[in-house]
Protein backbone atom coordinates (compact mmCIF):
# COMPACT_ATOMS: atom_id res chain seq x y z
CA UNK A 1 0.00 0.00 0.00
CA UNK A 2 0.98 3.66 -0.32
CA UNK A 3 2.91 5.07 2.62
CA UNK A 4 3.97 8.52 3.75
CA UNK A 5 2.65 11.65 2.07
CA UNK A 6 -0.39 13.44 3.49
CA UNK A 7 -2.29 11.90 6.38
CA UNK A 8 -4.68 10.19 3.96
CA UNK A 9 -2.24 8.12 1.97
CA UNK A 10 -0.77 5.80 4.60
CA UNK A 11 -4.35 5.46 5.84
CA UNK A 12 -2.93 5.94 9.35
CA UNK A 13 -3.35 2.22 10.03
CA UNK A 14 -0.66 -0.12 11.31
CA UNK A 15 0.60 -2.26 8.43
CA UNK A 16 -0.27 -5.47 10.32
CA UNK A 17 -3.89 -4.36 10.69
CA UNK A 18 -4.03 -3.46 7.00
CA UNK A 19 -2.63 -6.86 6.07
CA UNK A 20 -5.06 -8.80 8.27
CA UNK A 21 -8.06 -6.91 6.88
CA UNK A 22 -6.86 -7.31 3.28
CA UNK A 23 -6.26 -11.04 3.79
CA UNK A 24 -9.87 -11.85 4.72
CA UNK A 25 -11.26 -9.75 1.86
CA UNK A 26 -9.01 -11.36 -0.72
CA UNK A 27 -11.26 -13.89 -2.42
CA UNK A 28 -9.53 -16.87 -0.81
CA UNK A 29 -11.25 -20.26 -0.72
CA UNK A 30 -13.65 -20.84 2.17
CA UNK A 31 -11.53 -23.16 4.39
CA UNK A 32 -8.58 -20.77 4.13
CA UNK A 33 -10.77 -17.75 4.90
CA UNK A 34 -12.29 -19.41 7.98
CA UNK A 35 -8.77 -20.28 9.15
CA UNK A 36 -7.82 -16.59 8.78
CA UNK A 37 -10.84 -15.55 10.85
CA UNK A 38 -9.99 -18.15 13.52
CA UNK A 39 -6.49 -16.72 13.75
CA UNK A 40 -7.76 -13.14 13.75
CA UNK A 41 -10.39 -13.62 16.46
CA UNK A 42 -8.26 -12.63 19.46
CA UNK A 43 -7.12 -9.37 17.83
CA UNK A 44 -10.26 -8.66 15.85
CA UNK A 45 -11.85 -6.09 18.15
CA UNK A 46 -8.73 -3.96 18.51
CA UNK A 47 -8.23 -4.08 14.74
CA UNK A 48 -11.76 -2.94 13.92
CA UNK A 49 -11.44 -0.22 16.54
CA UNK A 50 -8.39 1.02 14.60
CA UNK A 51 -10.52 0.87 11.43
CA UNK A 52 -13.23 2.96 13.13
CA UNK A 53 -15.66 0.31 11.89
CA UNK A 54 -19.12 1.81 12.42
CA UNK A 55 -21.36 -0.81 10.82
CA UNK A 56 -22.48 -2.56 14.06
CA UNK A 57 -23.55 0.76 15.58
CA UNK A 58 -25.24 2.00 12.40
CA UNK A 59 -27.07 -1.28 11.79
CA UNK A 60 -28.32 -1.60 15.37
CA UNK A 61 -29.51 2.01 15.37
CA UNK A 62 -31.40 1.51 12.09
CA UNK A 63 -32.99 -1.75 13.20
CA UNK A 64 -34.04 -0.21 16.52
CA UNK A 65 -35.64 2.68 14.67
CA UNK A 66 -37.73 0.31 12.52
CA UNK A 67 -38.49 -2.22 15.24
CA UNK A 68 -41.76 -1.86 17.20
CA UNK A 69 -41.49 -2.05 21.00
CA UNK A 70 -41.20 -4.06 23.19
CA UNK A 71 -37.74 -5.41 22.38
CA UNK A 72 -36.77 -7.54 25.36
CA UNK A 73 -38.93 -10.48 24.23
CA UNK A 74 -38.03 -10.28 20.54
CA UNK A 75 -35.90 -13.15 19.21
CA UNK A 76 -33.01 -12.00 17.02
CA UNK A 77 -30.54 -13.95 14.89
CA UNK A 78 -27.14 -12.32 14.39
CA UNK A 79 -25.72 -14.00 11.27
CA UNK A 80 -21.92 -13.95 10.84
CA UNK A 81 -21.88 -12.62 14.40
CA UNK A 82 -18.08 -12.60 14.71
CA UNK A 83 -16.93 -11.57 18.18
CA UNK A 84 -20.29 -10.06 19.15
CA UNK A 85 -19.94 -6.40 18.14
CA UNK A 86 -23.53 -6.29 16.84
CA UNK A 87 -24.89 -8.03 19.95
CA UNK A 88 -23.26 -5.40 22.14
CA UNK A 89 -24.99 -2.62 20.18
CA UNK A 90 -28.36 -4.43 20.16
CA UNK A 91 -28.12 -5.19 23.87
CA UNK A 92 -27.55 -1.49 24.61
CA UNK A 93 -30.81 -0.83 22.76
CA UNK A 94 -32.89 -3.23 24.83
CA UNK A 95 -32.71 -6.47 22.82
CA UNK A 96 -32.13 -9.41 25.14
CA UNK A 97 -32.89 -12.62 23.23
CA UNK A 98 -29.93 -12.90 20.87
CA UNK A 99 -28.81 -15.96 18.93
CA UNK A 100 -25.65 -15.96 16.80
CA UNK A 101 -24.14 -18.05 14.02
CA UNK A 102 -20.69 -17.78 12.46
CA UNK A 103 -18.46 -19.94 10.27
CA UNK A 104 -15.43 -19.43 12.49
CA UNK A 105 -15.07 -21.38 15.73
CA UNK A 106 -12.47 -18.87 16.94
CA UNK A 107 -14.90 -15.99 16.48
CA UNK A 108 -17.70 -17.89 18.25
CA UNK A 109 -15.40 -18.47 21.23
CA UNK A 110 -14.94 -14.70 21.54
CA UNK A 111 -18.70 -14.14 21.11
CA UNK A 112 -19.42 -16.71 23.85
CA UNK A 113 -17.15 -14.82 26.27
CA UNK A 114 -19.33 -11.69 25.97
CA UNK A 115 -22.25 -13.48 27.68
CA UNK A 116 -24.65 -11.60 25.39
CA UNK A 117 -25.94 -14.56 23.37
CA UNK A 118 -28.41 -17.15 24.55
CA UNK A 119 -27.39 -19.50 21.77
CA UNK A 120 -24.36 -19.70 19.45
CA UNK A 121 -23.95 -22.15 16.57
CA UNK A 122 -21.27 -22.86 13.99
CA UNK A 123 -22.71 -22.40 10.49
CA UNK A 124 -21.01 -21.64 7.19
CA UNK A 125 -23.50 -19.43 5.41
CA UNK A 126 -23.93 -20.17 1.73
CA UNK A 127 -22.61 -23.70 2.22
CA UNK A 128 -25.29 -24.94 4.63
CA UNK A 129 -28.73 -23.88 5.86
CA UNK A 130 -29.18 -21.84 9.02
CA UNK A 131 -29.65 -24.06 12.11
CA UNK A 132 -33.13 -22.71 12.81
CA UNK A 133 -36.74 -23.61 12.01
CA UNK A 134 -38.82 -21.56 9.57
CA UNK A 135 -40.39 -18.30 10.76
CA UNK A 136 -38.48 -18.43 14.05
CA UNK A 137 -36.99 -14.94 14.41
CA UNK A 138 -38.47 -11.46 14.84
CA UNK A 139 -35.36 -10.01 13.22
CA UNK A 140 -32.24 -11.23 11.42
CA UNK A 141 -29.06 -9.18 11.03
CA UNK A 142 -26.16 -9.73 8.63
CA UNK A 143 -23.66 -6.98 9.35
CA UNK A 144 -20.36 -6.86 7.50
CA UNK A 145 -20.47 -10.32 5.91
CA UNK A 146 -22.26 -9.54 2.62
CA UNK A 147 -19.26 -8.80 0.42
CA UNK A 148 -16.90 -9.95 -2.28
CA UNK A 149 -15.25 -13.24 -1.30
CA UNK A 150 -17.49 -13.57 1.78
CA UNK A 151 -21.19 -14.48 1.97
CA UNK A 152 -22.92 -14.88 -1.44
CA UNK A 153 -26.18 -12.99 -2.07
CA UNK A 154 -27.81 -16.38 -2.78
CA UNK A 155 -28.31 -16.67 1.03
CA UNK A 156 -31.16 -14.12 1.04
CA UNK A 157 -33.99 -16.69 0.72
CA UNK A 158 -32.48 -18.64 3.63
CA UNK A 159 -32.47 -15.48 5.76
CA UNK A 160 -36.11 -14.92 4.82
CA UNK A 161 -37.01 -18.53 5.65
CA UNK A 162 -36.09 -18.17 9.33
CA UNK A 163 -37.76 -14.73 9.70
CA UNK A 164 -41.35 -14.44 10.95
CA UNK A 165 -43.90 -12.79 8.62
CA UNK A 166 -43.75 -9.10 9.50
CA UNK A 167 -40.23 -9.61 10.89
CA UNK A 168 -37.26 -7.42 10.00
CA UNK A 169 -34.00 -8.07 8.17
CA UNK A 170 -31.06 -5.73 8.62
CA UNK A 171 -28.28 -6.15 6.05
CA UNK A 172 -25.15 -4.16 5.29
CA UNK A 173 -22.61 -4.04 2.49
CA UNK A 174 -19.66 -1.86 1.56
CA UNK A 175 -19.54 0.58 -1.37
CA UNK A 176 -15.77 0.61 -1.93
CA UNK A 177 -14.50 -0.01 -5.49
CA UNK A 178 -13.54 -3.68 -5.02
CA UNK A 179 -17.03 -4.48 -3.67
CA UNK A 180 -19.10 -2.63 -6.29
CA UNK A 181 -19.67 -5.66 -8.50
CA UNK A 182 -20.84 -7.68 -5.50
CA UNK A 183 -23.02 -4.79 -4.32
CA UNK A 184 -24.72 -4.54 -7.75
CA UNK A 185 -25.50 -8.27 -7.64
CA UNK A 186 -26.77 -7.98 -4.07
CA UNK A 187 -29.07 -5.09 -4.95
CA UNK A 188 -30.43 -6.96 -7.97
CA UNK A 189 -31.23 -9.92 -5.68
CA UNK A 190 -32.82 -7.62 -3.06
CA UNK A 191 -35.01 -5.99 -5.72
CA UNK A 192 -35.99 -9.32 -7.27
CA UNK A 193 -37.26 -10.53 -3.88
CA UNK A 194 -39.15 -7.28 -3.39
CA UNK A 195 -40.81 -7.60 -6.82
CA UNK A 196 -41.83 -11.17 -5.98
CA UNK A 197 -43.56 -9.90 -2.83
CA UNK A 198 -41.24 -11.63 -0.36
CA UNK A 199 -40.42 -8.46 1.56
CA UNK A 200 -40.63 -4.70 1.38
CA UNK A 201 -37.78 -2.24 1.68
CA UNK A 202 -38.02 0.17 4.61
CA UNK A 203 -34.58 1.73 4.39
CA UNK A 204 -31.45 1.90 2.26
CA UNK A 205 -29.13 4.31 4.03
CA UNK A 206 -25.84 5.22 2.31
CA UNK A 207 -23.18 6.09 4.90
CA UNK A 208 -20.07 7.92 3.78
CA UNK A 209 -17.78 7.15 6.73
CA UNK A 210 -18.25 3.41 7.13
CA UNK A 211 -14.72 2.46 8.10
CA UNK A 212 -11.19 3.50 7.28
CA UNK A 213 -9.88 2.36 3.93
CA UNK A 214 -6.89 0.03 3.93
CA UNK A 215 -5.58 1.38 0.61
CA UNK A 216 -5.82 4.67 -1.24
CA UNK A 217 -7.60 2.93 -4.17
CA UNK A 218 -10.43 1.82 -1.91
CA UNK A 219 -10.95 5.24 -0.32
CA UNK A 220 -14.08 7.26 -1.22
CA UNK A 221 -13.17 10.60 -2.86
CA UNK A 222 -9.78 10.57 -1.12
CA UNK A 223 -11.34 10.80 2.37
CA UNK A 224 -9.32 7.86 3.69
CA UNK A 225 -12.64 6.12 4.43
CA UNK A 226 -14.87 3.75 2.53
CA UNK A 227 -18.63 4.10 2.41
CA UNK A 228 -21.32 1.51 3.04
CA UNK A 229 -25.06 0.91 3.14
CA UNK A 230 -27.58 -0.28 5.73
CA UNK A 231 -30.71 -1.95 4.33
CA UNK A 232 -33.81 -2.73 6.38
CA UNK A 233 -36.48 -5.02 4.91
CA UNK A 234 -39.73 -6.29 6.39
CA UNK A 235 -40.91 -9.75 5.47
CA UNK A 236 -44.37 -10.03 3.92
CA UNK A 237 -47.16 -10.50 4.69
CA UNK A 238 -46.91 -7.64 7.14
CA UNK A 239 -49.47 -8.20 9.89
CA UNK A 240 -52.26 -5.62 9.85
CA UNK A 241 -52.95 -3.74 13.05
CA UNK A 242 -56.28 -4.76 14.53
CA UNK A 243 -59.05 -2.20 14.11
CA UNK A 244 -60.57 -0.70 17.22
Q: How far is it from the N-terminal to the C-terminal residue, by CA?
A: 63 Å
Strand order of the largest sheet: 3-2-1-4-5-7-6
Number of domains: 1
DSSP strand count: 7
User: How confident is the prediction overall: mean pLDDT?
Assistant: 90
The fraction of residues assigned to DSSP E strands is 15-25%
Shape: globular
Order of helices and strands: HHHEHEHEEHEHEE
Rg from C-alpha positions? Answer: 18 Å
* Alpha-beta content class: alpha/beta
* CATH architecture label: 3-Layer(aba) Sandwich
State the helix count: 7
CATH-defined topology: Rossmann fold
What does this structure look like?
This protein has helices spanning 15-25, 30-51, 55-66, 85-92, 105-114, 156-161, 180-195, and strands spanning 75-79, 97-102, 119-122, 137-142, 163-174, 199-212, 225-235. The chain is of the alpha/beta class and 244 residues long. Strands 3-2-1-4-5-7-6 form a seven-stranded mixed β-sheet, sandwiched between helices. It is globular, with a radius of gyration of 18 Å.
Short account of what is shown:
This protein has 244 residues and is α/β, with parallel strands linked by helices. The chain has seven helices and seven strands. The longest helix has 22 residues, at 30-51.
Features:
Rossmann fold; about 35% helix; 7-stranded mixed β-sheet; disordered N terminus; alpha/beta; about 240 residues; 7 helices; globular
Amino acid sequence: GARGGPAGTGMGLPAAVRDRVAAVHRGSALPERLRLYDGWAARYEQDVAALEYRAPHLAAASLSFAFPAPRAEARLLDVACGTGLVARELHRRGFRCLHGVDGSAGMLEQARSTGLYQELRLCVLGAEPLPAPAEHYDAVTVVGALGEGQVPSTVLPELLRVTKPGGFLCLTTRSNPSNLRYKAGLEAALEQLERSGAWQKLLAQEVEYWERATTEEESTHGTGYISGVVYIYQKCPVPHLEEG
